[in-house]
Structure formats: structure tokens, C-alpha cells
Specification:
With 429 residues, the chain is of the alpha/beta class. The chain has three domains: 222 residues, TIM Barrel, CATH 3.20.20; 92 residues, 3-Layer(aba) Sandwich (Rossmann fold); 34 residues. The chain has 14 helices and eleven strands. A seven-stranded parallel barrel has the order 5-6-7-8-9-10-11, surrounded by four helices. Strand 1, helix 2 and strand 2 form a beta-alpha-beta unit. Helix 4 runs parallel beside helix 5. The longest helix is centred in the last third of the chain and has 36 residues. It is flat.
Amino acid sequence: MISSKRGAVIRMMILAVMFLASNNMDAEASAFTKNESYVLLYDRLYDYASNSSDVLRQYIELKAYGADVVLLRAERSDVEITDKKTRIISFPSSFESAEKYQQALQTFKGYKVTPFNGKSILPAKKGKNKGLFLAVSEVYPFSDLNKLMDLAERLHSKGIGFIVSIMPVYDNYQFEAFQKFVDVLKYVGKKGGRIFIHFPVVNYEGTYNLDPTALFEKALQEYRNRGLEILGITLPQNKMLNDLRVYDGLGLPFILVTEADGKISADLDLFKVSRALNDFIVIKGTYIDNFDFFGYRGKNFYDGEQAVMVTAQGKEDRLFHLLSVLEDERVPVWQFRVSDYRQRLRNLGFDKHVGIFEEQEKSQHEKFLEEEMRKIRGENLEGEKFVQGYDISTFSAVVVKMAVFLLGIFSVMVMISRRFNLRKFFKDQ
């Protein structure tokens, strides 16, 4: 009887623990899905003669934290913020004058506007920092695939699920080497590697091929047709905003964003684009060469999505040295698992923003390059017909006929003159 009571008590305790655990999981999930909302109010993205931007730096930080953030230029007076709980962060230093800044503040009278003071605007730490992800980037079909498999096995032995960022392949799918590459990636996937695809490498200077959308979609589809699950995209910060049309609607919910390699286009409607990006999960990636371990350890970082990256061509010894340091310092290295984002992924729709750039006015440079490309392809022939009143073909035909007629007369005259000269010669003889 006593033992049965003890058994009942133990069962009740187990059920209570399971109930509390499930409640905690639900609380974490709801906290993750109920994102905080921010509006970053600015005038100029970049300081004069500078490529850095406080606005974009804070934007990426908030996105990696999991917040909903929109970028709003002060001149967009047509935008209405309906949610009074939205935090508006202003950047006074981005405005050309104090008068212009005050005018912008008047637009949001009744809202709580917090000026950016140079420090992080992230909220106070809410829980235990879950740590860092690991990502292996720049994986080509011609990379050392044995090294990639060895690296996957070593990380798997440590219980680390990681990200692998592969390069798109645009042609030569029929080659055996491509299938071998896919087979290696499947093996890496079994060892805990989750596949991302790198943004297309496009030479924007001196090329007419400015839109890689179709090729990128084809490359992504080819990987998927061969059984690879592509979860996200890896790209620099500026391309995440500049080139949303390339990857939006392709079912890539995760964005591994690296340092910027250029500026944001001045013609871009950043309010519209940043609003669309709220349906993606952003992971802030830092290459191992630039990773500040002591800064990370000492600043009590936020519970955001962060990854330390190493290239497939880099020395893996540096990565495992960092891992040993992280273990000694009790800094966790987190497994990248899609299941941790299941609740939020249910709320995201990746096809509703397709065509977001269709209304965007193209720059004069883009228009010029498109027209030149049409000429190269011969697509402009119908539009290049002669304009009436400037058609010189008839005049040219008349001139040619007159020239032939005159040439004939001249030939006759030459023949007559030669006969006349011959007669004169024989008379003289």
C-alpha cells in the first residue's frame, strides 16, 4: 500500500515536472513569436564620405535579436504607425540640420521617440545566452570534399549541428562531378550540417547581366530536385536589402548575413523592403578572423542569433582552437536546429512579397545597360525602324542610279575620244 502511494507520488511529481517544462517551452515559443517592433527613423543612411552606418548596424543587431524592424526615412510622411507600442528610435546625427530633425519628430507626436545615443538599443538581457552557431561557408563543387566530410565528422562527434553555405551552380548539372558534390552534401547533412546557399556572385561593374534571379532560382531548384534541403541564404548586409527580389519567394526562411561589401542603393524603398524582411529569420555571421572573443565574452551579449564562420578553404585548426577556448570559458556552441523555430516558421509566408521591386523606378544606369543588352541580343530591331522624313534610302537609290548613268556617259565619251585620236593618228601617217 505504501509502495503504491509512493509510486503515485512519484508519478505526480514526474507529471508536474513535465507540465512545468512544457509551460516553459510554450513561454519561450510565445516570447519568440511575439516580437518587439521598432522603427528606425533617419535622414541619411551614411555619414558624408563614409561607408559605415549606425542605422544599418542597429538594424542588423535588432534583426538578429528577432525583433520586427522597419527602416523609415524622415521624408516618408505618408507612412502611418498604427501600433502605439512600437518603439521609434531616431538618429539625430543622420539629419542635415536640427530644424529638419525637429520637423521629423513632429510627424510622430504622441509616440515615444528615443534618440540613439551611440550605444546598443537592444532590450535588457532576458535569459541565458544560448551561445553561438558555427557555419562553414564558400563550399564549391571543386572544394576539398574529403576535408569537408572530415570537418563534419569532427563537429558531429562534439554534438554540434552546424550550417554549410554552398555556392550556386548554374550549368553542367549533367556531369558526374556535380552528383558527387550533392552526395557529399547529403553525407554532411547526416552529420548535422544544415544547407544554406550563397547569394550569386555578380560583377556589377562592367557587365550587362545585372539580374541573376532566373539563374539563381534554377540552381536552387536543381539542388532541391536532387534531394537537398536548402534552408536559407548567405549574403552580405547590403545585398540582403538591395537584392531581396533575387531570393524572395524561394522558400529560404533563414538569412545568414555577413559584413557589408558595398552600400545600400539610394533609390531603394527601405521601408517596403525592411517590412518584407520581417518574415525572415536573420542570423548575424562573423568570420573567425574578425570574431572578437574577448569582446563577446565581456559585453554580456544579447540572446540573438549569431554564427562564427569559417571558409571551406580555411584552416579548421583555428576553428577547433576556438571551440576549445569556448568550452574552457563555458560559452555554449549551439546546435542549429530548424525545430527550434517551428512556431515562428508557421507564421511566416515567403511568397506574399514576390514582386516587391516591380514598382521600383530603375536608375538611368540600369536603363542604359538594359537597352544596350537588348541591342546585343537584337531585340530592339522592331523599335529601330527608320522615322518617316529621315529615311534616306530613296535618295541613296537615286544617287546610285545617277552615278551609274554618269559613269556610262563618261565611258562612252572616253571611247569616242579614243576613236577620234586613232583616226587623227592614221591621217597624220
